[in-house]
Structure formats: C-alpha cells, structure tokens
Amino acid sequence: MATKTDTAPSGQPWAHGVRTCDKDGRAYGGFQWKVEAGDRNEAPDWSPVAECGKGLHLNPEGLGDWSLLSECPDALWMICRYDPALAVDLDGKVKVPWCEVVMTSRTA
User: What is the rounded CA–CA span in Å between residue 77 and residue 21?
Assistant: First the structure.
C-alpha cells in the first residue's frame, strides 16, 4: 500500500510518471503489473544501467516519448509515483526499480 507522506524515501518530493499496459495489466515483455491504486510494483530484474530493460518504465511527469504508450482502445493508463533519486534517464522515459500506482484508468 502506498505511504501517505509527501516525500519519497530519499527525502525528495515524489516524482510521477505515466505508463500504459494491456487490459489485463501486462506490459511489453510480459511483466504483470498490479494496477490498483496503492499497489507497489517491483522490477525483478532491476539494473541501474542506462539502457532499456531491467526496470519499470514510465514517461516522467507525463512528458517524454508518447509513442511508447499504447494506443489500444482497451489499454490501461496508469499514473505511478517513484523516488526520483532512483530513476535512470533513458531519453524520453525513465526506468525505476519500483513504483507505486496512484491511479489507473481504462480508455474504453
């Protein structure tokens, strides 16, 4: 369950990101997201190396490469919060070792 503090574990303000997955909560590569508000998701293969993969990917603050998000009518859209001290910049998106779901919305 998400904590009710204004700051992430690093002491910095929480950062937020947008991401999508299929209607069943699966992402590219088959990762199964927990999609309810308050759910914490963790990357089982986390690596802080600045390359795609091995982390949970988000568009930071809703900015970045929107072509990476699903256009499927039944996609799930999620806003997640993460500790910015742990984020790895991937030029248009970030990856993090864990994040917490703030909200999920269905487009259809």
Answer: 7
